[in-house]
Amino acid sequence: MPAETFVSRLNEQIAHEFAAHQQYVACAVYYDAETLPQLARFFYRQAMEERDHAMMMVQYLIDADAEVTIPGVTAPQTTFGNIVEPVALALEQEKRVSEQIGGLTTLARELGDYSGEQFLQWFIKEQVEEVSSMSSLLTVVERARENPLLAEEYLARETVGDGGQDPTSPHAAGGAL
Predict the structure, then answer these.
(1) Which of 15, 63, 104, 136 minimizes the number of CB atoms within 10 Å of its CB?
(2) In the chain, count of helices (H) and strands (E)?
(3) pTM score above 0.85
């Protein structure tokens, strides 16, 4: 069974992942309302990835016979001044999550929780991809600020991220919903 400190911090991370889910839904809704379907679709997919990340953590805690806490989250930002703001917010969020995952990994190692540390390795790899994808998208939307359809064309043409399709990912509670 994982250390109580690690379980507590992983439950906090579940809250962060659900908050990221809500924020990405808010970004997607903004783009939907702006009639930018490619950007909306991208953020709806990202929202589902964040939800799945939370559920992977839930499943890990269940499997480890540890307490799971499903938290409430703070309301996301829902208004944006332009097409760049949601992506800039998302990049900062991904950087913050990378730091959180790194901190959890360090904690697991310090506590000698090798299964917890091993579980988090996939998330470290995932965060590198998430930061890279969001950074690239930010560059694109900054260039397309005055003509958002250029960002739409980019997303229609390019594959950004893995779309949550990684066969090496941990199992999420509830399975494939």
Answers:
(1) 63
(2) 5, 0
(3) yes
